[in-house]
Amino acid sequence: QGSELSGWAMGRWTYEGIDLNHNFADLNTALWDAEDNDLVPHEFPNHYIPIPEYYTFANATVAPETRAVIDWMQRYPFVLSANLHGGELVVTYPFDMTRTYWKAQELTPPADDGVFRWLATVYAPSNLAMASEERRLCHYDDFTRFGNIINGANWHTVPGS
Fold first, then answer.
1. Which N-terminal stretch is annotated as signal sequence (predicted)?
2. Cα 120 from chain centroid?
């Protein structure tokens, strides 16, 4: 039916009206500011960026589901995660937010871009729905020409993803 008609928004917003797909703290800007000021890695380690203090305040607009994920991440540190949700048949890889804040799309690769591209390239053809010749388009985007993978920010910027 196409992403607009296939229920992609079902379950995306909480009862309180919070969009779970965009509710995480923006850690990209803190990293990029530190990089621009030559603070990485000695004064600002890039392997673990703490959740900003303002984001943990009781009155912050943070969904209980997001708080639960943050608590889980702090109890069980991990080095790789995946974000899966319905709608589009494409694998996006970091970063999801453009480095140039006013751009809607911009190739914004992380330092370990090759690893993320490799993981996306391995996953996409093994997903039968993505690999199908009969697959539907994403809006008007045909990701098959990119092997069904794209840098998230080069598709559309998502701060707090």
1. none
2. 13
